[in-house]
Write a structure and sequence with these properties.
The protein is of the alpha/beta class and 400 residues long. The protein has 15 helices and 13 strands. The chain is globular and about 75 Å long.
Length: 400
């Protein structure tokens, strides 16, 4: 379809005080290969962020322009820089008119409160709005894993996740299992549920084991309890001395548990290096160079770094969990392990000792991931969802 008149796409980047000032610029760079393909549908993209350099950064992105402009909304309130959902909602509504077509697309189900506040503020002033609830993992399950299934935190996450999914015009998940779980939990109409995997870049060739650093292991993620980085640190400390001398685990990411994890690594004399947040290009370079990529969390769905590692030809070792069953096939596209340090230590030792085996796993992972999650496969599905929700607004306007 042609670009709708005065159509605005709203993207919200959750406020993370410990993530660094340029975190949103890095996240946008990572998502840009997909997002820029949506620009022909919109006249404007509104980015809700605390990143002070985002407005300038957007103009440097390849392909930006062609009649679509950007607007960065920075609704900081209070001395702590907190972003209250109602404040964000009013800030978004203030730049949209009743004649606009507004599509709010979440960057995860954990953005429920803010996304719902945006929709409420837009509708209260008569602006036609649609909501695409897009997530790569079950937020409620991750919270239940971290705090306990009957904790107040888990109850609140389930309530917000349910409110978001029931209100959404389209619910997008990265796997059929994820969507079936959401539909069952929140009584969703299957017609409103669409499976779109995370995309992976396919413009770079995969890397063989012979061209990789045989002692480099990589794990990526926000340093919070649910990511289980402590399990990987303990696993590294359990490796035989001769392997610890030549192997290093690089943990990419930042978060509130960093100091605690650094202290754990030091106390165990584990060969671990903390890299902090990296630009997506720097991370991709490490993924193309590492001998193994590790993920200990059982509830993170389809993390971008895991998919990028597989697409690059890196062998992956992941904790068993229902959300990765269709992606990491044990013994074919990676190894699915019991979530214990002992299981990871044994698998790391065996994999580092067999380059041919790593090559077989990596090549299969690259082939499968590029076929199912390549940008050429994912982008048309994403475009179809946005075309669908914009058309529903225009149809409603024409019938009024």
């Amino acid at each position: 379809m042609d670009r709708a008149p005065d159509a605005t796409l709203v993207l919200h980047f959750p406020h993370r005080p410990a993530a660094g000032d340029r975190a949103d610029s890095m996240r946008l760079a990572r998502e840009w290969p997909l997002l820029h393909r949506l620009l022909p549908l919109y006249s404007r993209v509104a980015l809700v962020s605390t990143d002070p350099g985002l407005a300038e950064f957007v103009t440097s992105l390849p392909g930006f322009g062609s009649g679509c402009t950007s607007l960065v909304i920075n609704p900081i309130t209070g001395s702590t820089g907190a972003m209250e959902p109602q404040t964000i909602g009013r800030a978004v509504a203030s730049v949209c008119t009743a004649d606009s077509v507004v599509v709010v697309r979440t960057s995860g189900l954990h953005n429920a409160a803010v996304s719902l506040a945006m929709i409420a503020a837009l509708e209260s002033q008569g602006t036609p709005a649609r909501l695409i609830a897009r997530g790569s993992y079950l937020w409620s399950r991750a919270v239940a894993t971290q705090f306990g299934p009957h904790s107040p935190e888990a109850d609140e996450a389930g309530r917000l996740e349910g409110d978001l999914c029931r209100r959404a015009d389209v619910v997008v998940g990265t796997s059929a299992d994820m969507l079936q779980d959401l539909a069952w939990r929140y009584q969703l109409n299957p017609d409103r549920c669409v499976m779109i995997p995370r995309f992976v870049p396919t413009d770079l060739p995969s890397t063989d084991a012979s061209d990789r650093n045989p002692g480099l292991l990589v794990a990526e993620g926000r340093l919070v309890a649910s990511r289980q980085m402590s399990m990987l640190i303990r696993a590294m400390s359990m490796l035989p001395a001769e392997i610890r001398e030549r192997a290093t685990l690089e943990i990419v990411g930042d978060g509130p548990e960093r100091t605690q994890l650094e202290q754990l690594a030091a106390s165990l004399n584990a060969p671990v290096r903390f890299m902090g947040d990296l630009h997506p290009g720097e991370l991709l370079t490490r993924l193309r160079a590492c001998a193994l990529y590790l993920q200990a969390s059982e509830s993170q769905g389809h993390p971008a770094a895991l998919l990028e590692a597989m697409a690059s030809g890196a062998p992956v070792l992941v904790a068993k969990g229902p959300e990765l069953e269709g992606l990491v096939i044990h013994g074919q596209t990676g190894l699915r392990l019991d979530p214990t340090p002992e299981a990871f230590a044994l698998a790391i030792e065996e994999a580092l000792g067999d380059a041919d085996w790593r090559d077989v796993l990596g090549a299969s992972a690259a082939r499968t991931t590029r076929t199912t999650c390549g940008i050429e496969v994912v982008a048309p599905r994403e475009i179809a969802v946005h075309t669908r929700v914009i058309a529903s607004v225009l149809s409603a306007k024409a019938a009024a």
